[in-house]
Amino acid sequence: GAVVSQHPSWVICKSGTSVKIECRSLDFQATTMFWYRQFPKQSLMLMATSNEGSKATYEQGVEKDKFLINHASLTLSTLTVTSAHPEDSSFYICSAAGRVETQYFGPGTRLLVL
Amino acid sequence: SQKIEQNSEALNIQEGKTATLTCNYTNYSPAYLQWYRQDPGRGPVFLLLIRENEKEKRKERLKVTFDTTLKQSLFHITASQPADSATYLCALDRSSGNTGKLIFGQGTTLQVKP
């Protein structure tokens, strides 16, 4: 299957700082990338959908000014958690899709906000 | 409201036996259903996709059935091995179309004992 990478794999930051997470599709061009969040013992929850060159669409309850998404190219999308707080601590996972019914997930980024 | 339910209790089976996991959904008319494997601290890995007009799909030791009348999918692993131990997630496109916006079940953890 296709390969999707995320960087960093884990990050610890102080409350109030911003954290950027990168998602790259390594061997295919992703027309659409998705960002999910997973809290312990819970399922993945879709946060937003991004298409290259256009603004991301956010799911209900997800603050677009807090979770900034940039999809600058067909192989790179970034999620920036601005002014992070402890409740933002979670496992953030991206997926990339050439065809939307076939998504390849990244390995995830674990964020801990102190 | 739309719901996807998987048996939240862990499934413990003996090596060599067949594991059967269940995914039930309500208030959906999905065009397809997907199954993923997720290991601790990792992103989901795509296993199988079954479309609404398909009753059954197989891939090596894996078999998925899809009953749109019962609104249920069954996921079978035959000749199970300890390496099959993981959490298995079912997912649906949240629309009747193909947006790629997946709703995940909470997952069933499978433990295969040698």
List keywords for this structure.
heterodimer; A: 114 residues; mainly beta; seven-stranded mixed β-sheet; four-stranded antiparallel β-sheet; 0% helix; globular; B: 114 residues; six-stranded mixed β-sheet; five-stranded antiparallel β-sheet
Tell me, what's the shape of chain A?
globular
Task: Kindly state the percentage of residues in helix of chain B.
Answer: under 10%
Q: Structural class, judged by helices and strands of chain A?
A: mainly beta
Uncertain stretches of chain B:
none
SS-derived structural category of chain B:
mainly beta
Terminal CA distance of chain B reads: 41 Å
Q: What shape does the CA trace of chain B take?
A: globular
Q: Number of DSSP helices of chain A?
A: 0
Estimate percent helicity of chain A: under 10%
Strand content of chain A: over 45%
Annotation field: number of helices of chain B: 0
| Main beta sheet of chain B | 6 strands, mixed
Over the alpha carbons, how many angstroms does the gyration radius of chain B reach?
14 Å
